[in-house]
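Agenda item 2: iron/sulfur cluster complex prediction
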Amino acid sequence: MPKVKSLEDLMKIKEQALKDLKMRGSQKRGKIVVAMGTCGIAAGAKETLKAIVEALNKNNITDVAVIQSGCMGLCEVEPTVEVRMEDQNPVVYGHVTPEQAERIVKQHVIEGKIVSDLVVRKGEV
Amino acid sequence: MAVSTNTILICAGGACISAGEKSVKQVLEEKLREYALDGVVRVVETGCMGACDLGPIVAVFPEGVYYQKVNTENVKKIVEEHILKGRVVEEMLFEGPQGKIAAEVYEEHPFFKKQVKIATRNLGIIDPMNIDEYIARDGYFALTKVLTEMTPEQVIEVVKKSGLRGRGGAGFPTGLKWEFTRKSQSDKKFVVCNADEGDPGAFMDRSILEGDPHTVLEAMTIAGYAIGGQKGYIYVRAEYPLAIERLKNAINQAREYGFLGENILGTGFSFDIEIRIGAGAFVCGEETALINSIEGKRGQPNVKPPYPAQKGLWGYPTLINNVETFANIPPIIIKGADWFASIGTETSKGTKVFALAGKVKNTGLVEVPMGITLRELIYDIGGGVPNNKKLKAVQTGGPSGGCIPAEYLDTPVDYESLKELGAIMGSGGMIVMDEDTCMVDVAKFFLQFTVDESCGKCTPCREGTRKMLEILEKITRGEGEEEDLEKLEELGKIIIDSSLCGLGQTAPNPVLSTLKYFRDEYEAHVKEKRCPAKVCKDLIRYVIDSEKCVGCTACARVCPVGAISGEVRKAHDIDPEICTRCGSCIEVCRFGAISKVSP
Amino acid sequence: MVKVDLDKVREIVEKVKKETLEEGDILINALHMIQDYYNNFVPPEAAEEVAKLLNIPASRVYEVLSFYSMFSIKPRGKYVIRVCKSLPCHVTGGREVMEALKEKLGVEIGETTEDGLFTLETTSCLGLCGVAPAIMINDQFFGNLTPEKVGEIIDNFRGDKNAKE
Ligand SMILES: Cc1cc2nc3c(=O)[nH]c(=O)nc-3n(C[C@H](O)[C@H](O)[C@H](O)COP(=O)(O)O)c2cc1C
Ligand code: SF4
Ligand code: SF4
Ligand code: FES
Ligand code: FES
Ligand code: FES
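Presented output:
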């Protein structure tokens, strides 16, 4: 990575990163973001993450990325997971135990149906 | 206030989206705006309604009328006919089998509604390990602007004009602090970020460091430029290993991109940042103690003045700000001082992040404009007290703060109003307590904290707080005497007046504020030997109601000390002499026969 | 008794020196690393070596060791359990969690289990009040605890040890 030397350099990185964030132009069909603050981890986010990766593998889904973020602050419903599929509004789910994680992969990622009972927030922030 | 008379649900299930839901929604909203209905009619996206083949589906509530195959043309009819004239559009009605269709409304969690996110703008949105995502959300644009377009004096002017005050506790105007440090003459100066977050009930700094580490790095570098410093330290408590890991990663990335190090952005300005880790001493959050700790010494406070801005780290001028304070800087630079100053109240500008904890439904971090009322915070955002319990008090400001009773819930939250009530803003911890909380117990708790954490350097703090704690313990044991309450007040005043640092100077606050607002509760303990909230072990008894007890023996089996006797299917009895008030029996009785009583 | 390898201590101090840009402030960082290396305590011999290496009186090292609650010069268990005892955890069931831990481990606060696995300590707020009650075991965190859950967690850690031996 060459060092950033000007506003133009910075703009370029921003544009590329924005594309990646929204996933346009990337190979992936979607991404699942697991909130991994200490609070989330203390509430079990690591197990949730593992369950998601396993569920994706089990169903041979390779075009959905799994990444981590900080937390959005609603500790009460940790662990939280955001599912962001192409052309769809992102959905944040709460209280995602490993079992629920599997359900989310099946129902939302595979069948395209929102798991309504776990929704905490929907739409772009 | 606009009242929604209608709600239009539009299916955003996978199938309806591919059938054009998005553009239908757009036209629908445009149409509503055209008729100035956008405040009255709410449009909500729902999950799959189960009629994918006839989508996109639109439903109008409260009537519960479903329309099928809605497109950008005929959606206008729904507005013009149905909404405006109250006539159902027959030809678009859903024809599928009844019962097949089901609309679900997704209400956004009320938690997010009143929030205005500045310091926490990126939390949960970006990947904290990826600098590009920070840049995607305008990261490092403020630094670029500062280094290429602004003089240090201009930067300080903007911060001053924004009205930003320190978020670490004392609320000192940040711009002024920057100016003082700039004016101190020295060829070497430091910037320190205070991430020692020790107030019980506060965790915003941790979340910011874990979720958006770059914002702190960017702000510190801007501060370095403004004061004429070369190096920064972030002092993080050792209890935050994840924050430390993310910060380390962020520092490396920032160095790689050239936002830290020599000749940043080719402007000739050089600045670098290092992490220092605490080791479990609350007092190290105090700025002079923190400096001692970074220098590798015991973290005890020094007498001020000199202030760190004059003589700080290794004797050089040092700027110390809190994590949240720093997190506000980049948006202020980008959006301007006026924008920031337009949020909040006259004396408290911008937003504050609060950590809602204790007996509140939605525990978590909320960022709200200053001046919001406690009621909005706790009820509208926090969802109120769980289990239909009554709110009793709110504790703000941790061990330096005070308890605000329920009567004052409509107080606006800003530095001055809280202070007037004998509490403080502090770092933003907000502990909600319900009717089951004993205020004497709470006061005792905070004092225990201070006694544990006093560094021991000055006598009033070390001995005075211990003395106060002893009195509180006496009271909760039921051995309190009437003069004890005055003694507490006297001791409190002495400690406040004669301690060296903020820890001692504020330690009596939790006691004094509970004495002020809940004196009757203290008196009940002292005069009647009664704990109204039924918390203090020595003042309560566990009893079994013989009317309700069916003799299931569950309680007798669980009691660890064998205090419960009774025959099967006959009413049981607890021997108060043996009972240790552990509370196990109450949990297991399914007939609600056991209760706590305080004489 | 742990045998103290002074070369290792030297190596650690060198490493910390290399990682920092400024001289003179590496004592606390070095002690952290030594404590990690010796499984949760700083042996006196190591402390004295550090003093020599940094050219400071040993008394200063001990001063620092005794001031900060996270350091210990007495051996501690392989896992140090820190139970939060601050108010938000207290009002949401922290007391019961503490009792359950004491009972499960058979030790009081400040003590180490006979098998040398666990030391039970208290801490002030861990910043996890949103998922209170919370505890920290070495570098790991657990929240939303109940007496049953801490029981399971301890069992898992015990199992962990068996797996490794
Ligand atoms: C006992 C004590 C503990 C403190 N702990 C913290 C802390 O954990 N974090 C913090 O930012 N400020 C803490 N402060 C306040 C700092 O001394 C200092 O005012 C603050 O870091 C300045 O930053 P600000 O102006 O951005 O708020 C503490 C003060 C005292 C007296
Ligand atoms: S007031 Fe307390 S904590 Fe502060 S210097 Fe004195 S003894 Fe130490
Ligand atoms: S409170 Fe505890 S000790 Fe007392 S009777 Fe109930 S179970 Fe036994
Ligand atoms: S602070 Fe992260 S979810 Fe609680
Ligand atoms: S045994 Fe008496 S009510 Fe349970
Ligand atoms: S009070 Fe226990 S983690 Fe904050």
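Discussion summary: Residues B 283, 301, 454-458, 461-462, 499-501, 503-504 surround iron/sulfur cluster (ligand 2) (CB under 6 Å).
Owner for follow-up: CH.
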